[in-house]
Amino acid sequence: MALNDNNTDYNRLEELGGSDYEIVDGEPNIKGWDVKDDQGRNIGDVEELLFNPDTRKVRYIVLDTDANDFSLEARKVLVPIGIAELDEDDDDVILPNVTAEQIAALPLYTKDSLNADTESRIRDIFAGLGAAGVAAGAYGATHNAEFYNHEQFDQNRLYNRRLPAHDATTDAQSIPVIEENLEVGKREVETGGVRVTSNIVERPVEETINLKEEHVRVERTPVDRPVVGSDLDTFKEGEIELTEHAEVPVVSKEARVVEEVRVNKDVEEKEETIRDTVRNTEVETERFDDTNKKDLL
Q1: Would you say 66 and 29 are in contact if contact means Cβ atoms under 8 Å apart?
Q2: What is the rounded distance in angstroms from the CA atom of residue 265 to the CA atom of residue 268?
């Protein structure tokens, strides 16, 4: 895991966050990734990276065990970078063969408090020696550049499961050749429409009609003649009733369909020419004088 910098005036381990350094383009920035064991059980997450500004090499992962599947106490500890491996596909950091007991045995990490004895304890815990592997104070005499020439600090081991974007052993780099293709398709968009609304309106109408009405009229005519038999038949008490009738107007309404409105769509086709530009990578190579080139880690 390589770093870019704007300042190299350092002589101790620093946290990457807030420094003048950053992960180079193309390299994975594992800060914030979950840390798991080989069985996929969560150990914590990568809180920070600790590196040497002089050599621009990452030495430790700052592991935060706040969220874990082992009932570990929530705290921050240091894990040497060479012990970790990137998951082949997912954005996870794997600690193969590391046990919960080893994580629990690691000393608590606080910023700017790392010393030689603490680093010795960390290396011995992962070497299987435990905290008693080196006597307190004995480590300071051997803490030099050779201390990090150990597989626990070999950051190339980080890519055991995944190929790195930059191979530090061969210094080989790849340039992807990219070509764009123009694909023209069709999609339907709404351009407008017709809305038909029906409303009921009232209008006054008028019709003339003739109505009949009956009236009973009583007439009396004076006569003087002898009584005959038919007169005797009516010579008794009784009553005659005639009913009067009259016509009154009756109004009824009939709804009839007088018109139909149909809404249809006509489909028209037209040809349209699409013009655009596409890009592709063109690679030019040239040789240069190796004596004028300086290697950067």
Answers
A1: no
A2: 10
Main-chain phi, psi angles of 120, to 5 degrees: -65, -40
d(CA 254, CA 3): 91
Residue with tokens 């968009």: 189
CA nearest neighbour of 58 among 43, 77, 78: 78
Residues 147 and 132: their CA atoms lie apart, in Å, by 18
Residues 23 and 13: their CA atoms lie apart, in Å, by 16
- Residues present in the chain in total: 297
Place of tokens 């996870």: 92
In the predicted model, what is the mean pLDDT of residues 160-164?
78
pLDDT digits (tens, 9 = 90+) for 250-276: 888 888 888 888 888 888 888 888 888
169-215 pLDDT, tens per residue?
445 556 677 777 776 777 788 888 888 888 888 888 888 989 888 88
Q: Across the chain, which distance is largest between two alpha carbons, in Å?
A: 174
